[in-house]
Structure prediction request, 404 residues.
Amino acid sequence: MSSESGVTDTSPERGGDDCSPPPTPSTDYVPPSQSAITSLERIRTEMHDIFGRAAKRFAAGDLGLIGWGPPPRVHQIHPDHHGKTWYFVGDIHGDFLAWHVLFETVRRDPDFRLCFLGDLVDRGPMDIECVAAILDAAERYPQQILWIVGNHDEAIRFTPGAERPFSAIVEPAEFTDWLNAPTNGIGADDARAWGHLFIAICNYLPRAARFPDGLLATHGGIPLADRWPHLTTILAFEQDGVLSDFTWTRATSAPKKLGWKFDPARRATSSSFEFGYKDLEGFCAAVSAVFPITEVIRGHDHVDGGYERPSGYGVIPLHTLNGFGFNHLTNSLANYKHELPLGVRRAGSPLEITRVTYSIDEYQTVYMPIVAPVPDIVATNEERAVIDESGGGYRNGLPSTLAE
Ligand SMILES: [Mn+2]
Prediction:
């Protein structure tokens, strides 16, 4: 794909074998200051304390996250933050190894600013560990991390007295299942308290962030076209429907609008709205006086290799970024990505996508206990195909049609 903005396009070619390694050169592997298994064991050991301290910070109204708290939900990045190097991490989905590997890379820069684009939970194997890890990171690095809410993060509900008190308005919803029936030695009372805290925290997360130079960071996309004429003030972006659109809408190179255009029910629903580059250009033109946008980074759609710049988005570049390493179609850990994409944006420079590698030892020590057979992560593509077809991978049987 060509780029009209000068931003290096490092997205992998589409349509090939999903197991193919990304064609971009990898960053040289630098051993992390803390191994993945050490990090995981620490998070598990300290989990009660991490949630206990987070509950206190929540009650005090300061969780340590940028933009967390009372509205506005569309956060304007303060100029003090804007001069820093920003790192972008896409959907994590319970993939503790991906969180660890990416965050270890980010925090080598002590003055980092990290924007996590949302979807911390579901699909992957270690939801509660990922929740604890990001709360722990927010405490250790106050006002350096911005967590934009994802649709999976905001989808959980609690109904007192129900047989399954936790429910979700999205599928798959493994974190919700876990909260209703916790494992790994976590008691039902703790899971309930932590589930409550997670819901409450997500209620106060930003839906989108706008940088002073026009970069929009969000989970899903842009407001529905019917709303554009009403977005004449910055306060108008705080309407529930607009906030929902940021989190739930999907990007595509070829939006399917034929039926949608004449269907009022679908027009009004964030999650059924697919936008293309013409919609993005139309939105940016419609709101430019109050909300000038020049570039968009988001997650939500799961793409080959974890990064894509869909074709057509030349005037307003659009980047789709996923942080997790498991297979995006099957949720299998058995053909985990060789490299995990990380967005890096230095002050005054365009967004770059770098690829972060990890050691075989880190993969095996974290995921060996839950994946069988253990894949050789330097296996050839043919070998990988065999591993995949063996059905030995974790959650190999989940339907891919619910890809979120
Ligand atoms: Mn997602």
The pocket of manganese (II) ion is lined by residues 91, 93, 119, 299-300, 404 (CB under 6 Å). The mean pLDDT is 84. The first strand starts at residue 74 and ends at 76.
